[in-house]
Each structure stands twice: as C-alpha cells, then as structure tokens.
C-alpha cells in the first residue's frame, strides 16, 4: 500500500473505536443489550453507547454491567446521567501511522527475535504489565489480536499487541519494556513488527497514549505516528 492510499483511508471509524470494534470484528468478544455494548469480563473493560445517547441507552448499559460496576467509556465524550459517579478522567491523544517513519527509526529486521505470545504466556504478560503500567491489560486481552514479545534468556522483557479493531484499522497497545531492558530498541522493534503485519493486511495502525507519557509519544512520533486528535478517557460507576 502506498503512502497516498494510506493517507486517503477513512478515519471516521476512529471517532468511536470501541463501539466500532464491539459491533464488528470483536462481536464474538462482546456483550450487548439494546445499543449498549461492552467486552466480555477478562477481555477488556471498555463499554460503548452511541455518541449523544438517550437515557434508555444508559439504562441498557447499566443493566448490562450491573449496579455499582465500572463503566469504562474509553474516549467516548457522551455524558451519563448525574447518578453515574465519575471514577477517573485521563487526558490522552489518538495517533495514526502516517505511512513513513523518520529515516533510520523503523527497524528493517523488526521480526528478528520477536515471538508470538499466546494463552500459555498470559502470566508473564500480566507480570510485565504489573511492572511497567502500559495501560489496562487483563487475562483474556490477548484474544483481541496478535501479541508479540522479546525475550532475554527465555524471560519476557518487552511486549506489544493489537487491541481495538474498528473497520480498516488496528490499534497497537500494551507497549512495554521491563525497566532493566529499556533503551535497546525493543519497543521500536515490536511496534515496527506490528505496523508491518497490520499494513500487510491492508489496514492502518493507530494507538492511544496518555498526554503525560512524553517518552512514549516521542517514540511513536519517531516511528511515524502523528496525532489525529486529543481525547479524554473517562470512567463512571453505574448507579
Ligand atoms: C515507552 C517504552 C515502551 C519504551 O521502551 P524501550 O524498549 O526502552 O524503547 P526503545 O528502546 O525502542 O526506544 C526508546 C528510545 O529512547 C532511547 N533511549 C536511550 N536510552 C534509553 C533508556 N535508558 N530508556 C529508554 N529509552 C532510551 C532509545 O535509543 C530510543 O530512541 P530512538 O528511537 O531514537 O532510538 C518503555 O519506556 C516503557 O515500558 N514504559 C512504560 C510503559 C508505557 O508507558 N508504555 C507506553 C504506553 S502507550
């Protein structure tokens, strides 16, 4: 795929990546009621209602999740009824792959030393996530897409994987490197390997990152990601 066709790819699906994924390629990992949807427990906490929903859709989501549960609305700007208690707010940005990295920054041999991580490596993935805090990751999150890792003497020291899959796009997520293995290009290699796999399928990579994570933003920019929009991640407790 050329840069120009990448640049022309429709970005509208990225305005509601959770809803678009839950109603599309992740439908087999979704629970739905009316126009509300969320991932199966253990896969992800993200939930979706349509933008500007009516009270009935919030009622659907409350029924789906149960009372006093986390409604992780990801980047959805819709405001729930006043009895939904705010739990968290996090400023972030959505970045899309531009089609080219800065010269010398997208490793040519990205797949060298990279292994696919499956259900048998979940404990190690959870352990690495606990040490590095790249974002939410649960025992079944790896079912959302391909997860890749780098090992040092058989020990998992870095990983990255695919998460949300709205039509035409795949999100790169859970990018993390153990503190003692940083600065060796592991994250760059893993992101490059995922970019190559996603582009080879005729899709385009995107990702989300916390606004305060300036090191990660700089890394993604060197690898060819540009900011599409600023987002606010929000979570609420159901009444
Ligand atoms: C962000 C993170 C994944 C980077 O991992 P990494 O394997 O160190 O990244 P890389 O080595 O591929 O690239 C880091 C860049 O910083 C440079 N660097 C130099 N010394 C470094 C050091 N001690 N630590 C980190 N990076 C260093 C690298 O050379 C590289 O620059 P380059 O692209 O110009 O070559 C890692 O710091 C991390 O796990 N952070 C916590 C989790 C997180 O925030 N994840 C992102 C979620 S969106």
Automatic annotation (TrEMBL):
The keyword Oxidoreductase does not apply. Keywords: Acyltransferase, Transferase. Residues 112-239 form the N-acetyltransferase domain. SUPFAM superfamilies: Acyl-CoA N-acyltransferases (Nat). Pfam families: FR47 (PF08445). GO terms for molecular function: acyltransferase activity, transferring groups other than amino-acyl groups. It comes from the Bacteria. The keyword Transferase applies. Gene3D superfamilies: 3.40.630.30. This is GNAT family N-acetyltransferase. It comes from Streptomyces calvus.
């Amino acid at each position: 795929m050329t840069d120009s066709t990448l640049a022309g790819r429709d970005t509208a699906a990225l305005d509601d990546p959770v809803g678009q994924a839950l109603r599309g390629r992740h439908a087999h990992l979704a629970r739905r009621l009316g126009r509300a949807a969320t991932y199966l427990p253990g896969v992800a906490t993200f939930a979706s209602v349509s933008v500007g929903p009516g009270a009935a859709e919030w009622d659907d989501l409350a029924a789906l999740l149960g009372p006093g549960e986390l409604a992780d609305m990801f980047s959805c700007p819709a405001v729930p009824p006043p009895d939904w208690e705010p739990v968290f707010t996090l400023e972030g940005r959505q970045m899309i792959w531009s089609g080219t990295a800065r010269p010398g920054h997208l490793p040519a041999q990205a797949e060298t030393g990279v292994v696919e991580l499956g259900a048998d490596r979940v404990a190690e993935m959870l352990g690495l996530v606990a040490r590095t805090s790249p974002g939410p990751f649960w025992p079944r999150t790896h079912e959302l897409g391909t997860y890749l890792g780098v090992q040092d003497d058989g020990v998992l020291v870095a990983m990255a994987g695919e998460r949300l899959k709205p039509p035409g796009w795949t999100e790169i997520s859970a990018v993390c490197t153990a503190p003692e293995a940083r600065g060796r290009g592991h994250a760059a290699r893993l992101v490059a390997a995922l970019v190559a796999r996603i582009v080879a399928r005729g899709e385009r990579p995107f990702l989300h990152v916390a606004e305060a994570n300036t090191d990660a933003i700089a890394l993604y920019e060197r690898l060819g990601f540009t900011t599409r929009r600023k987002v606010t991640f929000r979570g609420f407790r159901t009444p």
